Amino acid sequence: MPKTAPIQSSFNSGELSELIGGRIDVAKYFNGASLMENFYPLQYGGAQRRPGSIFVAEVKDSSKKTRLIDFEFSTTDVYTIEMGDLYMRFFRNNGAVLEANKVITGITQADPCVVTSNGHTLSDGDEIVISEVVGMTELNSKRYLVANSAANTFSLQDKDSNDIDSTAYTAYVSDGVANRVYELTTTYLEADLFDIDFTQSADKIYMAHENYHPKVVTRTGHTVWTITDFAFEGGPFQPVNVTATTITPSADAPGAGVTLTASNPIFTADMVGGVIKVKDGWADVTGWTSTIIITVTVIVDLGTGPAATDDWALGSWSIEAGFPSSVTFSEQRLWWGNTPTQPQNEWGSETGVFTNYWPGAAASDPIDIEILNTKVNAIDWMIEGPGGLVGGTPAGISVLNGGGFDEAITPANQRNRRHTTYGSKKIKPEQIGEFIYYIQRDGLTMREFGYYAETYSEKGRALDQTVLANHILKTGVTDMAYQQSPNNILWCVRTDGTLAALTREIDQEVTAWSRHIIGGTFNTGQAVVETVTTIPQTDYNEVWVIVKRTINGVTRRYVEYLADPILDDLDSARFLDSEISYNDPVTISGATAASPVVVTATAHGFSDGDLVKIYDILGMTELNANTYKVANKAANNFELTNVDDDTDIDGSAFTAYNSAGVVRKKVTALTGLEHLEGETVRVLGDGAVQVDQTVTGGAITASTAAAIFRVGLHKKAKLRTMRFESGSATGTAQGKHKRIYNIFVRLYMTVGFSVGYDEDSAEEIEFRTADMDLDTAVPLFTGDKNIPFPPSEDERDGYVYIEQDNPLPCTIISLMPKMEVHDT
Fold it and tell me: How many CB atoms are located within 10 Å of the residue 257 CB?
């Protein structure tokens, strides 16, 4: 019965498939996990609990599926765009983009609640946010629909068009503003949203879909966005006519009102809005008369005489021919690809002139190329990558370049080469470093396309990134986005609503998958993530999602973002989903070193007897992180007394106040939770876990007063190792009786977890010691925990299972079990 002490020093192989459960000959086995749910592997080696998601807003119409896309105008102006049925909405700085203030001068205590705002210009059905109301504060920081709009008044409804009854609200005193949620009207229907391809340059987004004229979305201000048809010029065109059919123009010089008459029926009404080439020039099609007559505006002289000519070509893009469904930038050209009539074509604009597609011979002239393969395969996507313009089709991946690796493409210098037969699915790919990540045609596999130094040639390879975790994308993928910082993660939305995350660090050879299930339920199953995007913030990339849940019996779709994973202390810990934070600091500008201590905080709003907590003072640090009772309050200052006996706080011997500091009132009544009505929520108060509560009327009462609250839905994090292998007296430990009797768990900035053989045997590890106050947070722990392992009568697997069932941080660096292995 030898005793062994193996170590799992890393988890950066991620969750591995059961199919390699016996592959102890593979090095990644020893750094992997058989379960990694709501933990993700760090590129450094550990496994970290996923941060929670912060509630931002309900989408415009929760009955319809909605998509998120990103827009980065500058380092300070980045947006998440909510793209829904016939509209776009915008988020910036973690909140909705709102229109200018509509000043409120009165609000009734009535059913329905009526707001007075002179000359407001709001219309019925507009969605607004109300804030800064004095008195009837119940309305603040919430969204409403406008109803019964008149010149100077309107009533309020909730998102379900139910009147707001303010009869029992506090009486209105003064102030307040209403801000309309800014919205851009579009023509895109719900059914088409996830088939739209897009690319960005500076202040413009170019959008492609085969059923819509290409669009340009332009930002000129936070609340000034436009969407217009892309004004392509000079083409592109279908192949030049090879039949005997001729076209006779009524005039060939530039100008409007020119008619083109064909010798045979070739025209349809759906060509209007497109272009046509006739001999040496081209024209915009402006009207349709019959199958043989159209009206055009000549742009470039046709050079026909005018006379009949069989030298003509119809436009490639029109309602008749269809429109391109993919778009990207490469080599200073705007590229479009794949129409219903020319699915294998790629069209590149003139270099630096994105609207010009008139063919020419100069190196900078537009390019029109058909990507020929043995099968007809539509171009699902294009992206600028190593070696040239990379295109994904169901038959494989092709690269278009100028004839050599990274050689420029010109009208006279083109080479297209298929590099792999692993075809793609129409999901926008992502790029990490020099490699392109795409979903294979089956929807179940992710491949990494690039050029590998160990086998370098001008032919790229597409390596399977799910080969050790073939189950991870088992339901298929519908959307994905890349988070570059801090952990280099590619987030994939599965069709079942699970987020599959690939931690990829190429230089360190880290390829590690994990699965993430967002808190809440939809019908009787899990909450469903439907879309994902990322935007850069100052020190990390923020992950945004739309989550579908059943809330109080109704389907709701919420826009949320994952909290900052960089943790400083428990006050910044955010591990609940659809979370609302209660954090109302009042700035301190002075504190006396006297008895009693007098704190200066302009317009603090506190009352005598209120409990307050002080943070971040410089100088008089003796006050920090302590709770006091307010006494002898004035408009801009108050005294501090002891909570237990109301005696004055004597600060005579304290260090002199220097600067800074905030004070927060401790409360138990929490409102603004209407988005979680009827849900049982977890409550974190000042970093300490409190009793669960059920949301009623958008509110809860916490079990213990606190200054900072986090409230939301919880989903436990689970981690299970592979079967430990440390050998036995007769060879392997696999399949033999083994007993783990002790384990060291190395942790980083962690509070709380449970450990055992499996979920049923897991026992919670205590982090709170006898000398800690019960109403304060447990300090973050970094180091080793020495844990006696729960016994098991018959254990052959030798798993270690860890879970975090509280909304608290947990990072597992390594595991060091002590084991006995029997030779039976």
Answer: 12
